[in-house]
Structure formats: structure tokens, C-alpha cells
Amino acid sequence: MPAIPQWTDTLLSSNTNYQLYSRANRSCLIMDTTPALQVLDKHSQFQDIQQDSKAGYYYIKVNKEKTWVPILPGYTIFTKIKNSIFQLSINVSDEQKILFSWIEFDENDTSKTIAFDSQSDRFKSLITHIDPDGRISIPHLLGFSISGIVQVLISTVYQKYPQLYPEFQPTFKARQVTEKTIGVVQRKGKRLRREIENTLPETFTREGLVITAEEPKYVNYDDFMALLIEYKQIKQSLYNSNRQIKHLKQKIDAFKYEQNNIENKDEENEDQDEFLITRVNKIIEESKIGSTILVTLRDI
Predict the structure, then answer these.
(1) E-strand spans in 64-176?
(2) Which of 79, 108, 230, 268 is least enclosed, having the fewest CB within 10 Å?
(3) What was the pLDDT predicted at 144?
């Protein structure tokens, strides 16, 4: 994994609501999750802003597939262009017009503003400011080609207009599980951080897990989603197998109870009892129950 640029490390350490993403060309951007994303009336139907300036979507390729990417007020990122850090954000006017706002900061100090503007111009003023020849792709600059960011935007629209993305339902449910899991991890992380700060040694062990205050490692969103979905599938398979085994064992116990009350067991009952035991052992073997999945912090 390539080294994290210094400017991103500085910003990430300043705000826990900042999330790091990487573009296909390995350049980085940081998304600020503090502002709430807003879904407007214009998002009720697909219209490409490249064809209609009043529209609320970009119709562009994401992972080689044409996708309607919503342009939502509240969306804010930080990125580096040439030698300056820029904040790009989507806002909305009182007339429900989408505003494209940008701020240029000093290379090493985001408290020093060099230039700024806010217009309903799809960042044309930004392009004029940094590249008069206009060779910059605004959707690419905003991170709209990054699947993790696109899923966040679509998920927000899906909650209000689910009919627009019918195929998104499984992903939406997975995102809900992900967000819940992240919330639990964050709460536990805060508790562990407090314990680390109050512990003299550099490392300590809690419930068999070695905790160390090393340099933070940032997990790629797509890798986390893939791991979570695989874990949920294996967990569901294990649950289904255990239910089958429990059901079959109940049948075996019932047959044994009947057999204890019958002095002469007929051959049919013996065959059926043997068949059920064989079936249980087969399910155990196929499901590989008893195997474990080990995920270490080094793997992440």
C-alpha cells in the first residue's frame, strides 16, 4: 500500500469525521462526513447536469458501468491540486439551486485562505482558477468515480426515492450492517484508547488482543465491505447448518424415546435411526462446523 501523503495524515488526525479515499490513479481525497447530505426535489428523477444545468445527477462511468451519481448538498471533500489544498463542497441556495463552492488553502496550513468562490457553475470558476485550458474532470476531482463514495451518495437518495435504485436494496442493507458495526467498533476503540492512555507500558493485552499505540492504518472501504459480506455469508451458513442438525437430533431423540418403550425394535426403526445419524454427520462434514476464521490486525 502506498504511503499516505503528509497533508492527508495531518487532516485526518485533526478530525475523526474525516475519511480517506483513493482514486484509481492513487491520488487521495478526504471526505468530511460532518455535514448532513440533503436530497432535493430535483433528485426525484434522473437528469444529467452535463445536459441540463438544473439537474441533480452526473451520468458517468463508475467501475466501467454507467451510473447515476447524485450531487447532494452537504457533500464536502479536501484534495490537493498542484501545491495547494482545496476544499470542494456542494451547497444549495434559497432558490434550491445547487451551488459549487471551493476554497484554496495554503500548502501547509488550512487556516490560511488564498482564494474562494461559490456559484451554480459546476466549478467552472475553479477550473478557470487552476487550469484555464479546462483539462480537469470535475466528477473525477470530486471522487464520483470512487465506488465507496458513490454508494454513500446513492444510499442517501435510496432512503427517500428507493424506486430509482431497485437493484441497490442488498447493498443498502449491507451498508446498514456496516454502519452499525463501525459504530460498535468506534465506541470500543474510544474505550480502549482511554485505557491505553492510562496504561504505562507501550502495550497491554485485553481479552487476548494485543493493543499497541502504533501509526494508524486506514482500511479500504471496498476491502472492509468484502470481508463483512463474506463473514455474514459464512455466519448464515453456519446458522442454517446448526438448525438442521438440531432438528435432526430432535428426531433421533424422539425415536430413541419410542424405542425405549418398545421391547422389540423392528428392523425399519433401526434403519431409520442409522439414516438420521448418517445425515447429521454429513451436514457437519459439509458445513465444516468447528473450523474458525481468524482475522488479525496485520491482515487489515
Answers:
(1) 65-70, 76-81, 84-92, 98-106, 109-119
(2) 268
(3) 98
3-class secondary structure, 91: strand
Domain count, the chain: 3
Same domain, 10 and 41: yes
What's the pLDDT score for residue 186?
74
- Average pLDDT for residues 6-22, to the nearest whole number? 93
- Is residue 161 within 8 A of residue 44, CB to CB? The reply is yes
Distance CA 159, CA 170 (A): 13
pLDDT tens digits, residue range 79-105?
A: 999 889 999 999 999 999 999 999 999
- Looking at the fold, whether 32 and 174 belong to one and the same domain comes out as no
For residues 50 and 156, state if they share a domain.
yes
Give me the domain span that covers residue 96: 6-164
Contacts of 103 (CB under 8 A, 6+ apart): 86, 87, 113, 115, 116
Asked if residue 299 belongs to a domain, the reply is no
Answer yes or no: do 37 and 145 share one domain.
yes
Residues in the chain: 300
Tell me if 79 sits within 8 A of 70, measured CB to CB: no
